[in-house]
Amino acid sequence: MRLRAILLLLCAPLAMGQAKPVLVPDVSQRDIEIIYSFTGAELLLFGAILYPGGRVPDDRADIVVVVKGPVQSVLMREKQKVAGIWVNAESARFRSAPSFYAIASSRPIGELVDERTRAIYELGLDSLQLSPITSGSPEQQQRFAAGLVDLRKRTGLFVEEPGSVEITDDVLYRANIDIPARVPVGRFTAETFLIRDGRVLAAAVRDIEIRKSGFERFVAAAADQWSVTYGLAAVALSLALGWAAGALFRRF
Amino acid sequence: MDIYLPIANLSVNALVIIGLGGLVGLLSGMFGVGGGFLTTPLLIFYGIPPTVAAASASTQVTGASVSGVFAHLQRKGVDFHMGGVMVAGGVLGSLIGAGIFSLLQASGQIDTVILVLYVLMLGGVGGLMLKEALQAVGAVRRGTPVAAKKRRHHPLVAALPLRWRFYRSGLYISPLAPLILGVLTGILTMLLGVGGGFIMVPAMLYLLGMGTQVVVGTSLFQILFVTMAATMVHATTTKAVDIVLAALLLIGSVIGAQLGARLARRVKPEYLRLALAAVVLVVAFRLALGLGWRPDEIYTVIAE
């Protein structure tokens, strides 16, 4: 009985591999380095869909690409008008807000999968699993979540681009994702999903590392680890520049 | 020319920041104020996070006041005794300010407090300056000199215990008065990234009754050291000093300050003060509007 179950389990991937297509994804840059001239980057996500036996089925499959930044625990504050001026009033905490989230798909995501599947795979800005940890009402959490999405959308940190994934001959796909200059550093993931008939047939993940490099990395590390020396350097710089300008102008 | 700011974590146009520093420097050279009161709001307006703006603005004020201090040293316009007491108070104040800063940050009210303080301070000082400048301009037009006010310190100052002699200022008062003044400006420096010159100068003139020939020099001396202390406190507590941002601001402001000082010699001082009052009041008015109008962003997100 048990042996048969184990055998069945072992054979399962083989059986599925025959029936299901496989994704071979890649990204144009595995490492994005932030240097002084960094104004953002353009990421190209591309790859191939391998169908079993090389036979492309008749009904069309869709591709969804999601690039996610490291999750953060965030505190959100909401301004309200109190006694004539706008002040921070209510607040909410989310334990797992992505610092960056971009989704591109070959068709609008709402037409591809139902709400439940969207929530499972975190497909779409309205399906993010933010893990609220405040005792507020669901409506309040909803309001704050919408506020977070709206804010990050306008700063370019949350992006939704339906219809921007190109599929060539039902086999090759490509999508461009813009990484803005305000992007946080850390380990990013690029997930690719193959979807047909409202079901996720295959998924694959690639990691992307975004980090400060060279001088920028040095400055950020210095400010964090050698803060006294860093402060003294800032003071020395301002004294030197102020003095130099004075000395220079006295000559003319 | 875009350049990435490693602490603010965003990229800015270097020429815009240098130009902004230059504009502030021009004003500071013309009017003899640090100009921090303009830098911080302008940087926030440009999209720099408020904490980084305040921290880096204080670094800029240090640079802008250096050459002023040298100039006044040559004219013996610095009362080191008085300045030293004020610096001691200022350093103490910036530490207190750091405590207030983190308390307000935790309660989420730091932005509102910064704004309200700005509006009150700029509105109050701007209003007083406008009134005084209008009187002076009117007097110049009529050709009648304004009667100089009798120099004496405030009765409250006289009531403080312990009296020291401050020779260059020509005063015999309690050191507690300049110390308290120093503490207050230290707190303002830490919270707002301003040097506090335009609070210090009137307070030194009208509260302490200091001689006019040492007021500006001593105030610059105090600003120099207190902004240095504030930079250090920011660097070690909020870690928000962006050295690239500060350098860009400094390049603009030290050049602007020199140009401004030259420009100032060609304009009558009464009109200069009137212009400064107008600038201060416009900034105050704009910030006050921001308090009452519905802000662009209802939500703020702080990563923990």
TrEMBL record, chain A:
Transmembrane region(s): 228-249
The signal peptide, as residue positions, is: 1-17
Entry's InterPro entries?
Answer: CHP02186-rel_TM (IPR019088)
A Pfam family annotated for this chain is: Alph_Pro_TM
Q: From which domain of life does this come? A: Bacteria
Q: Which UniProt keywords apply?
A: Membrane, Signal, Transmembrane, Transmembrane helix
Question: What name does UniProt use for this protein?
Answer: TIGR02186 family protein
Q: Which organism is it from?
A: Sphingomonas gilva
Q: List the top taxonomic levels of the source.
A: Bacteria, Pseudomonadati, Pseudomonadota, Alphaproteobacteria, Sphingomonadales
From TrEMBL, chain B:
Q: Transmembrane ranges?
A: 12-33, 53-73, 85-106, 112-130, 171-199, 205-228, 240-259, 271-289
- Among the Pfam families in the record, one is TauE
Provide the membrane topology annotation: Multi-pass membrane protein
Record's Gene Ontology CC terms?
A: plasma membrane
In terms of domain of life, where is this protein from? Bacteria
Q: Which InterPro entries match?
A: TM_pro_TauE-like, TSUP/Inactive_protease-like
Question: Which keywords appear in this protein's UniProt record, sorted alphabetically?
Answer: Cell membrane, Membrane, Transmembrane, Transmembrane helix
Q: Which family does it belong to?
A: Belongs to the 4-toluene sulfonate uptake permease (TSUP) (TC 2.A.102) family.
Designated name of the protein: Probable membrane transporter protein
Whose protein is this, by species? Sphingomonas gilva
